[in-house]
Amino acid sequence: MLSWRIGDVKITKIVEVESTGSTKFILPQATREEALKIGWLAPHFMNEEGRLKMSIHALVIETPTRRMIVDTCLGNDKQGRFVPWWNKLSGPFLRDLAAAGFTRESIDTVMCTHLHVDHVGWNTMLVEGKWVATFPNARYLMGRVEFEHWRDQQAQEEQRAVFDDSVKPVFDAGLVDLVEIDHKVSDEVSFVPTLGHTPGHVSIRISSKSEEALITGDFIHHPCQMAHPEWASTADYDQAASTKTRREVFAKLADTPTLVIGTHFATPTAGRVVKDGDVWRLAV
Length: 284
Fold this sequence. Notes:
Elements: E1 3-6, E2 9-21, H1 32-36, E3 52-62, E4 67-70, H2 93-99, E5 109-111, H3 117-120, E6 124-127, E7 130-133, E8 139-143, H4 144-152, H5 157-172, E9 176-179, E10 189-193, E11 202-208, E12 211-215, H6 224-227, H7 239-253, E13 259-261, E14 270-276, E15 279-283
Parallel strand pairs: 4-5, 5-8, 8-9, 12-13
Antiparallel strand pairs: 1-2, 2-3, 3-4, 6-7, 10-11, 11-12, 13-14, 14-15
């Protein structure tokens, strides 16, 4: 189980799924032939055949006074998901969370970088046929713009299902705080606008004792997008905006000590952005 220290803050990765294979449905530009041209991806983020490695995981943030979790993966027992195997999962995520020392009752804050299917699933759990808050003692922080967008949209059938089973129940229970995209959560933790993937997408900055980390959310899905920031995800709401965000963030972080923790990066998951000609790479 991976963890990192940023000053007085500890960040721990809790994996739901790691996989190696086709990313055509999310990054169609990253064919095996194109991926193999990016040699530094191997062995951590690509196998010898050019198949990309990805992960769905949550990140627990422990400050001296708080215990938070960022993005809650897919969740068990959900239905109506576009990817067939994401339906009716029965995985050990909560057991793994508890084994790492984090009972669900001990979490005081849930932060959603955005409200897509693989980032909100464990917001809720199925109990006697009803969706209830997985983290009953937590405030759920969601961007106001993000929440209102998905609340009002009617076009995407999957996203309606996600909202109904993983967002609306905690909102109706009075556990949601709708916040702005630059919201300060604590002295050490704050939202950072990284727009394009969704209308209100944020990343999470951690700062303590002159050390910094950035939890990406989905402005980047895979490190290959450092070599090709123009490779926008099929799930990006505004691909031009997401590409602009990637270029701006990588340029700002390049050759700094900021630790970048990828929300979908396979193990080792974190590294530092390094300038690589006209683009960038992840140094782990």
